[in-house]
Amino acid sequence: GAVVSQHPSRVICKSGTSVKIECRSLDFQATTMFWYRQFPKQSLMLMATSNEGSKATYEQGVEKDKFLINHASLTLSTLTVTSAHPEDSSFYICSARSSGVTSYNEQFFGPGTRLTVL
Amino acid sequence: QQPVQSPQAVILREGEDAVINCSSSKALYSVHWYRQKHGEAPVFLMILLKGGEQKGHEKISASFNEKKQQSSLYLTASQLSYSGTYFCGTENVQGAQKLVFGQGTRLTINP
Predict the structure, then answer these.
(1) Burial of B71 from C-beta contacts in 10 A (0-12 / 13-18 / 19+)
(2) Quick check: A54 contacting B, CB < 8 Å?
(3) Which of A4, A45, A104 has its CB closest to that of B47?
């Protein structure tokens, strides 16, 4: 149980285009989803926290107009990188959390999306 | 504020033991441990909650010293499959929702 999927796993796009990444909780309802960004050999940096049906809470320094997050249902959250530029190239990982899965509210991570902007 | 992990990297031979530490400058409510293999998502190992709990997972266990604001992960008789980068994620207050992750400890197990 507690499986989180992400799509696509890899995406290559041209500078200036927008890219949408989907994060789905497959066998549980995710009351909260998180979006992280990870550069090579570095830690997971939280970008934003989203709760179903409400606006996402962005971390300091993350441009909300550039990284659009939508958490439309208890099983789906999307991250759209608008007008992507080469510096946006990174590994984007989502995670989902639900009080109903276990007693401890741990986060379950998706497999990640490797974004390369040319 | 990001917790500090030590050491940054460890190289072991199969069967040896390792300890990875995670220290915070703030009081902690919980510490979550994850292992990430290259190019993959982090995999949950265990949670330790305020109150000195010790948890175990196969030959991997952990402790939480809330007074010292730190947690330690113990890997006993390491196996090749234990290789990867270990991250601790900390929650400062109950219900904080988000975790702040340390910079990671890269563990390499050689045969």
Answers:
(1) buried
(2) no
(3) A104
Residue in chain B lying closest to A59 (CA): B98
Segment B59-74 shows an average pLDDT of: 89
Mutation pick from B6, B34, B35, B44 vs chain A, by most beta carbons of A within 10 Å, is B44
Least confident of A29-33, A78-82, A87-91, B101-105: A29-33
Three-class secondary structure of residue A87 per DSSP: helix
Whole-number Å distance between alpha carbons of A75 and A53: 11
Closest residue on chain B to A42 (Cα): B103
Cα–Cα distance list, B105 to B4, B9, B33, B54 (Å):
10, 5, 11, 20
Asked whether the CA dihedral B36, B40, B42, B45 is positive or negative, the reply is negative
Residue B61: name the closest of B76, B83, B39 by CA: B76
- Measured between alpha carbons, how far is A8 from B91 in angstroms, rounded to an integer? 30
Q: With beta carbons under 8 A apart, name residues in chain B contacting A112.
A: 39-41
**How many whole angstroms separate alpha carbon B3 and alpha carbon B23?**
5
